[in-house]
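ESCALATION

Customer reports they have been waiting on this structure for their group meeting. Please prioritize. Original submission:
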Amino acid sequence: MTTNDKISDDLMGVDEQFIAEDPNVLALVKIGRSRGYLTYEELNEMLPTANYDSEKTSTIVTYLSDLDIKIVNIDEEEAILLDSKEEEGSIVVDSEIAESHADEPKGD
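Update from on-call: job pushed to the front of the queue and completed.
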């Protein structure tokens, strides 16, 4: 089963069939699942008002929320990215410390 098949299966329970068949929604779900969030800018780019009325957009946003995909503004995204980089940095620092101590002679 491919990722798109899995996403489509998850969407089948949604009242609005257009969600399960819309490639833009499928792309948003895929991105949102991989990161855990989407930005409002991404939603606006993928769901232009010319093609999606407020009711459709609201249904899609509700569905994304049901999948635990957060919708954040750019400032929140920057904070999320900064936090994840700090966490990665602390792991790197810890491993560098461990490596530097690995060369030290061990006392008996």
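Sent to customer with the following note: The helical segments are 3-11, 17-21, 23-35, 40-46, 54-66, 74-102.
Escalation resolved.
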